[in-house]
């Protein structure tokens, strides 16, 4: 059989076929005149003659369209009819060859839409192979092992040709396509010959028992000999290099259960409905493809997870036909994870586990940590970490994840993200709340004297503030904390982009808020620097950068509302002039005459700015925080005190990028955060400042519990203290040696009492982890927040840094009425 490789384009319909199509159309269009004309020559009744003409036109149309129809017809026959007409012998090889014999030359064309995820898997594999540290061997050392890639179930060799677009095939010393189906391998051989590949070979073998020529000759020890293994919709196992080998898998799946393993790996979202599981298992069973969940479970048990991503293939562009598939990138579980363990324990403040699973991660609701796999790895033996009393007593806040499971351990690049489990509470955060940060970091650096010796804990938000600290002050450690995983994903993306991208791409993503090739950059450039959780999130939400990232998330609703209000009020031109004003006097004039009346009209204040639902969902302001500023006046008073001073401070065009973003929807090169400017980007990229980051997906209280005594110099909690329920001044602080208990073990009354006391526990933990002279810092919507007395009761010295008075701004944002610090003093 002659093998014809599929072409990248569709052939145009030839002239004879076009004439047949036109003839068929003419017969239908002129059916009545033709019947009248032919009746005189053909002895048939008019109805019979009509049927004959319709039949002839159908034949002509089919023949005319045959170049476009023969591929789907052959595909449907071989896939849906042939399996029922020809029963195989039961042998897997015979079954495969019988199934593909009539469609091997069509395989690549017909599977391009059905088998999604293959390009993503290959891009991930190529990116991570290129990102691995270069091993430099001594001159007298044994020669490096050959780089061997095995494509199991490789069929036609499509994966090999596609990989050449992302990583030159010359990277490998040898590439083997292994498959049991000769018709598909014939296509692969023709492809190899046509492309002139010298290092690509075809082996007709069972993927579960394959043997490479290097193994047979004794030139290479099979154990740990493979650099890469790929499986596209053909799941098996193989022998990877334990330290550098990578395995890429893309396949269909159907899973219902999601236990501790899924929560550790980050694949709880792989669950499908019972109907979807039942339907797709039955459907694929007809073709001898078995989607039992144990296959993927065994893969995730046997291999260390580096990246995993779940998706749905709606190849027919319908919402009800969506085939679940996943992309997996893994490595040997024998890979040395000690560097990651050190990063997550000694450097990030997590405890090292003493049982099977190695590493402990906060925020589990379980009191007993279930043992899942194996025995502890000697690679994870680390020096003992001295912890505070809360971390050792509150065992319910610790859950064992361990190197066999957590993809954080096998991260190839900088380990910024501290491991966490996917909890029920994380499901409440479908997206980010804050797309940018509402505090002025330049004021923080100046007034808090942030410097290179500082160890800081700060709220993550969108990461703008902590990136400014790293750029301008270079503190030794920055613990960025946020309970919303999506906020951590934003900061992780910014850190990864600084390391992996050129400035222009970085600017398009975070300056303009859009990039036409974000999805491609995510997999080919950014993925080695992202945790599996962050990669999967951005792969699913890549469309956020297709138009404007800053209009997405909950904060994006505020920007959208502002745009609508400006349109209705007819002041969009004035807003543009305000953003381009060259003096504060011009800004003040436009603000007072045009923009201010829009913000401060009664409808806007009552329906939106004074609406608790809008304030929470669009601005991230809960009711307790509203109560803080309402104690000093009305909503209108607060808005006036916040916005009226802004136009007089500095121009939006050159300095106040906070309000420029809100009004303009994007930054400009002259008005943006320092890390977005070319010199800031270059400084962060070329320095070790980003090594200081540890990103925690947890509550401030839980993170503080895991940190050693007197390990921090500054704690910056933004406005989070405003969120707590007020505590009566007469309420005593909890005992010094007590700790916040697991609310799941309490009665509802005790749980409510515990929640009311959580602020006190947080303050006590702050005092424990701060060095003498260290400070806890917060901003508040109240001029004199009620919780000052809780810090004082704990023995901290409370002082105002700034209080907003006489219509004067305290910084370029001016969103808060006061700025405070609590200093730890000698007792």
UniProtKB/TrEMBL annotation:
- Keywords annotated in UniProt: Membrane, Transmembrane, Transmembrane helix
Tell me if Transmembrane is a UniProt keyword of this record: yes
- Pfam families this protein is in? DUF3419
Which CDD domains does the entry mention? Answer: AdoMet_MTases
Q: Report TM segments.
A: 12-31, 51-69
UniProt cross-references to InterPro entries, sorted A to Z: DUF3419, SAM-dependent_MTases_sf
Q: What is this protein called?
A: Betaine lipid synthase
């Amino acid at each position: 059989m002659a093998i014809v490789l599929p072409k990248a384009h569709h052939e145009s319909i030839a002239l004879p076929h076009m004439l047949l199509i036109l003839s068929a159309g003419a017969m239908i269009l002129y059916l009545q005149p033709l019947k009248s004309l032919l009746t005189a020559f053909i002895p048939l009744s008019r109805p019979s003659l009509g049927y004959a003409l319709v039949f002839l036109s159908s034949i002509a149309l089919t023949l005319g369209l045959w170049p476009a129809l023969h591929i789907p017809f052959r595909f449907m026959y071989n896939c849906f009819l042939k399996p029922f007409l020809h029963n195989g012998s039961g042998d897997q090889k015979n079954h495969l060859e019988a199934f593909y014999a009539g469609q091997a030359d069509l395989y690549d064309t017909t599977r391009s839409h059905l088998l999604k995820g293959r390009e993503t898997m290959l891009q991930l594999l190529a990116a991570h192979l290129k990102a691995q540290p270069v091993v430099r061997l001594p001159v007298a050392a044994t020669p490096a092992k050959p780089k061997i890639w095995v494509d199991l179930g490789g069929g036609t060799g499509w994966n090999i040709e596609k990989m050449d677009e992302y990583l030159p095939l010359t990277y490998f010393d040898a590439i083997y396509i292994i498959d049991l189906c000769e018709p598909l391998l014939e296509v692969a051989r023709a492809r190899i010959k046509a492309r002139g590949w010298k290092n690509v070979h075809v082996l007709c073998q069972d993927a579960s028992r394959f043997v490479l020529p290097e193994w047979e000759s004794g030139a290479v020890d099979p154990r740990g000999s493979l650099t890469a293994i790929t499986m596209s919709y053909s799941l098996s196992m193989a022998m990877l290099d334990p330290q550098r080998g990578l395995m890429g898998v893309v396949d269909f799946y159907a899973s219902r259960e999601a236990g501790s393993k899924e929560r550790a790996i980050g694949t709880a979202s792989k669950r499908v409905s019972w109907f979807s599981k039942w339907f797709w298992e039955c459907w694929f069973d007809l073709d001898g493809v078995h989607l039992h969940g144990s296959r993927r479970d065994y893969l995730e048990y046997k291999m260390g997870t580096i990246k995993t991503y779940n998706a749905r293939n709606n190849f027919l562009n319908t919402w009800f036909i969506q085939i679940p598939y996943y992309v997996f990138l893994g490595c040997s579980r024998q890979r040395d994870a000690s560097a990651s363990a050190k990063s997550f324990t000694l450097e990030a403040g997590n405890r090292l586990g003493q049982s099977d699973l190695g590493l402990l991660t906060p925020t589990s609701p379980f009191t007993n940590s279930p043992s899942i796999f194996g025995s502890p790895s000697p690679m994870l033996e680390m020096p003992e970490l001295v912890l505070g009393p809360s971390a050792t007593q509150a065992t319910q806040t610790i859950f064992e994840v361990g190197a066999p499971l957590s993809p954080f351990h096998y991260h190839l690049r900088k380990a910024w993200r501290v491991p966490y489990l996917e909890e029920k509470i994380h499901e409440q955060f479908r997206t980010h709340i804050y797309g940018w940060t509402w505090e002025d970091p330049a004021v923080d650096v100046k007034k808090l004297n942030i410097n290179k010796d500082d160890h800081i804990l700060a709220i993550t938000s969108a990461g703008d503030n902590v990136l400014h600290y790293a750029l301008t002050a270079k503190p030794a450690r920055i613990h960025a904390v946020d309970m919303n995983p999506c906020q951590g994903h934003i900061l992780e993306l910014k850190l990864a982009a600084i390391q992996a991208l050129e400035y222009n791409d970085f600017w398009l993503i975070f300056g303009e808020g859009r990039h036409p090739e974000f999805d491609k950059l995510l997999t080919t450039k950014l993925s080695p620097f992202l945790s599996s959780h962050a990669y999967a999130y951005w792969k699913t939400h890549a469309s956020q950068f297709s138009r404007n990232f800053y209009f997405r998330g909950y904060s994006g609703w505020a920007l959208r509302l502002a745009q609508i209000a400006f349109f209705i009020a007819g002041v969009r031109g004035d807003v543009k002039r305000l953003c381009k004003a060259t003096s504060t006097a011009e800004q003040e004039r436009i603000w007072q005459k045009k923009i201010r009346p829009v913000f401060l009209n009664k409808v806007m204040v009552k329906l939106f700015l004074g609406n608790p639902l809008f304030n929470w969902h669009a601005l991230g302001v809960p009711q307790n925080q509203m109560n803080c500023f309402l104690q000093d006046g009305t909503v209108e008073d607060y808005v006036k005190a916040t916005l009226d001073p802004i136009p007089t401070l500095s121009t939006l065009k050159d300095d106040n990028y906070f309000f420029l973003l809100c009004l303009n929807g994007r930054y400009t090169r002259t008005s943006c955060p320092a890390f977005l400017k070319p010199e800031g980007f270059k400084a962060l990229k070329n320095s070790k400042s980003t090594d200081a980051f540890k990103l925690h997906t947890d509550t401030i209280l839980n993170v503080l519990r895991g940190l050693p005594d007197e390990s921090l110099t500054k704690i910056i909690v933004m406005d989070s203290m405003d969120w707590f329920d007020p505590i009566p001044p007469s309420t005593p602080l909890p005992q010094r040696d007590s700790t916040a208990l697991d609310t799941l073990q309490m009665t509802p009354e005790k749980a409510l009492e515990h929640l009311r006391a959580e602020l006190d526990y947080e303050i006590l933990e702050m005092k424990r982890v701060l060095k003498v002279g260290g400070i806890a810092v917060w901003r508040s919507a109240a001029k004199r927040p009620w919780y000052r007395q809780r810090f004082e009761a704990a023995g901290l010295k409370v002082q105002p840094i700034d209080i907003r008075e006489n219509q004067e701004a305290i910084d370029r944002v001016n969103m808060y009425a006061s700025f405070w610090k609590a200093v730890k003093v000698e007792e």
